[in-house]
Design goal:
6-stranded mixed β-sheet; binds NADP nicotinamide-adenine-dinucleotide phosphate
Length: 323
């Protein structure tokens, strides 16, 4: 028997796949005493998670339902096994990235703003864009959006979600460049040390790394300066992976465009310059959260509990204390 701690308000429907040896323990959001739990399925990105953990006794495994565990790892005791949600966000996060790329290239935010003002005008009439720059179309027609086809997309963080992004890009006839911590082949992945060399080649740069000491500020003024004029930076990773001040400056100088699901700080406060920076699409960290996602998450959680009961190795172990 394993005591599996879950949030007190979790729907019964999500618990049907758990093995018979799992005793479900519903943990109150404000526990008054100590709760005995072996395997804790952490509530989603709750700010009071650390406080909640302090009321638990006997925890051997903490299972996060989020791919990034940067908000848990710093306070979790090292003798507790931490597992992340690698894989469960692949669909939702990669679909967000594709949507963000296409919406930005096709200028949907601009046209949606114009719709709000009941204005029928093309991108070429905008002074804050990049498309009134001239080219062979001048005198022929007005450019109203960009194609994704034949562009070069650099995926920085070629992990589970990075590969899912590439799979979805396949239909668009793009060249994909991949970066991870270390180089590998089949497919060719460059080491992060090559990032500065690759940035000038890309029309679209997607950040999808975990937030670690190494990735904090990975995109600073130097890296943003190396990107092509008018290139699109997509951040679906974590806000601090990009230096906000440097990004605001690049946007305000009309050097880059951006699509951000994550920002630093988060939530982005009213009046922050990023809100009004030109050519910047912002969504409030919603990339991974869809109704379908929670079923995938708890199917994975149930499988992890089954492995734990069977004495099999757990998947997605981030820090393994052994148990
Ligand atoms: N916006 C959202 O709602 C949302 C949703 C889900 C996830 N995320 C973010 O996306 C991140 C990635 O998720 P995932 O499931 O794809 O994780 P993953 O499978 O662990 O992949 C992470 C990738 O990042 C690479 N990486 C790690 N440190 C790096 C560094 N210093 N420089 C360059 N590359 C580095 C890894 O390289 P190696 O392969 O060489 O180790 C790996 O390829 C999460 O940690 C989370 O922060 C955001």
């Amino acid at each position: 028997m394993v005591r599996v701690g879950v949030d007190e308000k979790l729907s019964e429907e999500l618990l049907v796949g758990f093995p018979p040896g799992a005793e479900i323990v519903r943990i109150p959001r404000k526990p008054s005493g100590v709760v005995d739990v072996d395997f804790w399925i952490l509530p989603f990105a709750r700010r009071d998670a650390e406080e909640g953990f302090s009321h638990l006794r006997g925890v051997k495994v903490v299972q996060s339902m989020m791919a990034g565990v940067d908000w848990i790892a710093p306070w979790l005791p090292k003798d507790v096994v931490l597992c992340d949600g690698r894989g469960i966000h692949d669909i939702s996060a990669s679909e967000w990235v594709l949507t963000a790329i296409l919406a930005s290239l096709k200028r949907f935010p601009l046209y949606r703003d114009m719709q709000g003002r009941q204005e029928w005008r093309g991108q070429a009439a905008e002074t804050a864009g990049f498309l009134n720059e001239g080219g062979v179309q001048v005198g022929q027609y007005r450019v109203l959006g960009d194609d994704l086809a034949v562009k070069t997309v650099l995926i920085v963080g070629y992990g589970s979600i990075g590969a899912a992004i590439e799979a979805r890009l396949a239909a668009f006839g793009v060249t994909v460049l991949r970066v991870a911590r270390s180089a590998r082949s089949n497919p060719a992945v460059f080491a992060v040390g090559e990032l500065d060399r690759l940035l000038p080649e890309a029309d679209v740069v997607v950040a999808i790394v975990p937030l670690t000491a190494e990735t904090r500020g990975l995109f600073g003024a130097k890296q943003l300066g190396l990107m092509k004029h008018g290139a699109l930076l997509v951040n679906a990773a974590r806000g601090p992976v990009v230096e906000t001040d440097a990004l605001v400056e690049a946007l305000e100088q009309h050097r880059l465009r951006a699509a951000l699901d994550v920002t630093d700080p988060e939530p982005l406060p009213a009046g922050h310059p990023l809100w009004s920076a030109p050519n910047c699409l912002i969504t409030p960290h919603i990339g991974g959260s869809t109704p379908e996602f929670i079923y995938r998450a708890f199917r994975f959680g149930a499988d992890q509990v089954r492995r734990f009961l069977a004495g099999e190795p757990l998947e997605n172990v981030v820090s393994d204390a052994g148990y």
